[in-house]
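From the methods appendix. Each design record in this collection lists the tokenized structure first, followed by the designed amino acid sequence. Records were kept in a plain field format so they could be parsed without special tools. The example shown here is representative of the layout used throughout.

RECORD:
FOLD TOKENS (855 positions):
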């Protein structure tokens, strides 16, 4: 794509989040509906938020690279075919998008029990309104930031997608390179433009049912209509702008507090909200704080809101959508008009208003003209010559102004041509997706693949033949849509076509060609053809190096992509110098502390760990930690996580004594950050307990395990995988302390709970079976231990094989239990079958062979 690389399941262009590594033992604190905290290579660590049908988790990806991601999983109880289909459409919708202000999709799939999930880049931001207030952004800064949101939503509209749930929590803001920026997340109820059968069927809500967040919902959404278009997002953007300016929503909690849901929908459809200037005044005593949060004085803010500034959100929020801005681009353009002192599309059409705007922008020329008129009408002959002199000066000034205006007009013409080009592309896609018969008011739907095939056929037939750049852009857009619809095979064909077109258009090296090369590699990678992907990644990297002649962010990103691909091919030794080169380049590009540098430090450390070079990895992890500490100044989740990474590396080096204070510091920081029960606090309690246990300090570990277990039980009422795991951990520690009788009921409770909430044959359940069996055996309850050992042996033989050491250890214990029951012939049969007469197969001690789940 001309605008950048397509979304991919691996590090693509753009700054990457740090790739933290969690200790291998602690369980995650959150509870996905699958009953596990591990989904493929993703370890869930905390809940970030919940939507109508999905829950967002922060997660740690463990392979093929290690990084922090955001994972969305469908909620427990939302298992209908329609909801799962809608969730699948959500995943496909996100994969279409490739914009710097939209969070990228990295991966997608289903859990063991068929629940869909998708993985996005983790955005370390906060809701846009909170960010603006916390950083006391001025009105101008807020408007500049708001235009980024408009541009992102316009990009989605260009890919035939509507967000339908724009609100502050779905627009995350953060500082990048010293500048405020935003990322739009969660296209959870996105709706395809037109009648794309594959998407609109699954995304369309039942007639009469409103979907969205009431405070930000458009009147047409509140009406439950299926006829939703891009102006729905314009309305929500208007609400967001209203809140950025006034510090409150158009309709407040008080407005909706005592109203039935039907009444709330009526209010949205029919009641006009107060003007922003009035809404701000209604805040009363908080008005001075409102102005302070916007870096201005109360009088200045009030004056701005009373005039043109409030026209923009009011136009965006008009009940009749035909009276709104037609697109986010036009909304953003009017915001820029305001910032540049130009007439607003939202303003009155009066001649006086237009004249006043001209006067304000051309004050000097207008004053000169006014003085000339005054002098001419005075009839004072003495000033005639002076007037003529001034006329000549004015003529020169006007000529200069005319030249400047000509340049400005040229820039506007260029912008109009770019907009027209985008519209051409959008129109062709839209007409390919939907054919309408206005006489019959009917629509004919088709699959995305059919629609895109039709668009390609039109291009092949000569459409846009005189607009080769537009044609190349359109080919790339179509390829991205196919890729986003999980059709990587067709996506590869189309992206290859786009590459060929661009190679014909741009002879030699060109950024668009490099981007297409990278995109071809992405599709090959996702088709499992990583060996073919590597040369494409390398070609994109080499071209970017030739183009940019030195350090450049896109070169560093390409180095990162090549390294990732090499790691996936099992060639970590070759990947390391690429990761190191990316790190060195980022260190030169971003002087001093920068999140991208910290991320690269973590990438290098992770690769070193894969190569068994933990001693070299440790200083990299420590450097990343120190950088985070300088960047965030005090308690911060990324600092806590980085402390955890250093502790993990120390543990892998056998330096648990040094790891312990790091884990304790992590726990203390999380306790200060969250101040009450929280999954991160419970997880850290478990990690500290595990480290104490490893150091032989089980008596100190037990209260930590118990505190974690109690917190999990408060957090997750009833049966839950994390509650079961924490019960198992307490039991393990009690058993370790020789208090097996106390451990037994906890082991039993953990096993019973896991059988309820986890799929049959789940590894955690089988670990509990083994733990309980060993505890029963230690208490000389041989009859109770026997069926447990047989179940454990069958599972181990199935998953590991009959000759695996783990299988033989379970068989050994089963033999001992049978001997204790005086069933010596059966015991001997077990020993012969698993060749346990060989001393090498006998477990040396109970402690080293215990099949226990560690905390």
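DESIGN:
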């Amino acid at each position: 794509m001309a605008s950048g690389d397509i979304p991919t399941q691996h590090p693509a262009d753009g700054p990457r989040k740090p790739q933290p590594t969690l200790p291998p033992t602690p369980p995650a604190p959150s509870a996905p509906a699958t009953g596990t905290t591990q989904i493929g290579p993703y370890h869930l660590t905390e809940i970030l938020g919940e939507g109508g049908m999905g829950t967002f988790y922060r997660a740690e990806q463990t392979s093929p690279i290690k990084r922090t991601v955001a994972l969305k999983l469908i909620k427990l109880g939302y298992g209908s075919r329609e909801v799962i289909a809608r969730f699948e459409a959500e995943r496909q919708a996100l994969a279409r998008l490739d914009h710097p202000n939209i969070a990228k999709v990295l991966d997608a799939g289903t859990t063991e029990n068929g629940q869909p999930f998708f993985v996005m880049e983790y955005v370390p931001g906060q809701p846009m309104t909170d960010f603006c207030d916390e950083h006391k952004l001025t009105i101008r800064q807020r408007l500049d930031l708001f235009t980024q949101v408009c541009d992102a939503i316009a990009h989605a509209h260009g890919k035939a997608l509507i967000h339908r749930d724009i609100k502050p929590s779905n627009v995350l803001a953060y500082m990048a390179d010293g500048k405020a920026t935003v990322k739009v997340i969660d296209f959870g109820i996105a709706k395809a433009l037109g009648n794309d059968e594959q998407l609109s069927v699954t995304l369309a809500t039942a007639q009469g049912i409103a979907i969205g967040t009431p405070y930000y919902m458009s009147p047409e959404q509140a009406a439950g209509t299926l006829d939703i278009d891009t102006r729905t997002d314009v309305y929500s953007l208007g609400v967001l702008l209203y809140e950025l300016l006034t510090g409150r929503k158009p309709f407040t909690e008080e407005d909706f507090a005592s109203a039935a849901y039907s009444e709330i929908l009526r209010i949205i459809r029919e009641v006009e909200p107060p003007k922003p200037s009035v809404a701000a005044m209604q805040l009363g005593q908080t008005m001075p704080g409102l102005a302070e949060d916007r870096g201005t004085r109360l009088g200045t803010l009030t004056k701005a809101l009373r005039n043109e500034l409030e026209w923009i959100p009011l136009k965006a929020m008009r009940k009749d959508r035909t009276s709104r801005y037609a697109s986010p681009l036009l909304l953003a353009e009017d915001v820029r008009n305001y910032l540049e002192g130009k007439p607003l599309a939202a303003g009155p059409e009066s001649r006086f208003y237009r004249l006043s705007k001209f006067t304000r922008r051309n004050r000097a020329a207008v004053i000169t003209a006014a003085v000339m008129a005054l002098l001419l009408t005075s009839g004072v002959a003495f000033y005639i010559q002076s007037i003529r002199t001034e006329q000549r000066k004015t003529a020169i000034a006007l000529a200069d102004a005319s030249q400047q205006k000509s340049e400005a007009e040229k820039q506007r013409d260029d912008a109009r041509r770019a907009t027209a080009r985008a519209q051409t592309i959008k129109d062709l896609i839209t007409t390919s997706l939907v054919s309408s018969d206005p006489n019959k008011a009917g629509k004919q739907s088709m699959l995305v693949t059919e629609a895109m095939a039709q668009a390609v056929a039109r291009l092949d037939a000569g459409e846009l033949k005189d607009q080769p750049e537009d044609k190349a852009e359109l080919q790339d857009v179509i390829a991205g849509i196919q890729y986003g619809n999980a059709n990587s095979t067709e996506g590869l064909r189309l992206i290859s076509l786009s590459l060929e077109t661009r190679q014909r258009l741009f002879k030699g090296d060109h950024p668009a060609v490099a981007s297409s090369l990278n995109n071809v590699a992405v599709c090959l990678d996702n088709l499992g053809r990583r060996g073919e992907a590597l040369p494409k990644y390398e070609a994109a990297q080499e071209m970017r190096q030739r183009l940019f002649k030195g350090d450049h962010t896109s070169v560093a990103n390409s180095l990162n992509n090549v390294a990732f691909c090499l790691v996936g091919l099992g060639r970590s030794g070759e990947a390391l110098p690429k990761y190191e080169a990316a790190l060195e380049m980022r260190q030169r590009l971003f002087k001093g502390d920068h999140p991208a540098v910290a991320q690269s430090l973590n990438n290098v450390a992770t690769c070193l760990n894969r190569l068994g070079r933990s001693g070299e990895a440790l200083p990299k992890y420590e450097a990343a930690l120190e950088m985070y500490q300088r960047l965030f100044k005090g308690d911060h989740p990324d600092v806590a996580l980085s402390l955890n990474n250093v502790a993990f590396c120390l543990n892998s080096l056998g330096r648990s004594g040094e790891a312990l204070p790091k884990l304790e510091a992590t726990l203390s920081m999380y306790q200060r950050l969250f101040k009450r029960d929280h999954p991160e606090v419970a997880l850290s309690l478990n990690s500290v307990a595990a480290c104490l246990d490893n150091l032989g300090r089980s008596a100190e570990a037990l209260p930590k395990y118990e505190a974690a277990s109690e917190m999990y039980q408060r957090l997750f009422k009833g049966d839950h995988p994390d509650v079961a795991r924490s019960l198992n951990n307490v039991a393990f520690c009690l058993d370790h302390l020789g208090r097996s009788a106390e451990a037994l009921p906890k082991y039993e409770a953990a096993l019973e709970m896991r059988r309820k909430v986890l799929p049959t044959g789940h590894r955690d359940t089988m670990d509990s079976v083994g733990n309980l069996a060993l505890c029963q055996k230690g208490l000389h309850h041989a009859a109770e231990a026997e069926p447990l050992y047989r179940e454990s042996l069958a599972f181990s033989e199935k998953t590991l094989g009959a000759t695996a050491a783990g299988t033989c250890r379970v068989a050994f214990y089963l033999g001992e239990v049978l001997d204790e029951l005086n069933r010596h012939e059966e015991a001997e049969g077990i020993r012969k079958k698993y060749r346990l007469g060989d001393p090498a197969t006998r477990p040396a001690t109970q402690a080293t062979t215990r099949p226990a789940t560690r905390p």
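APPENDIX NOTE: The longest helix spans residues 384-433.
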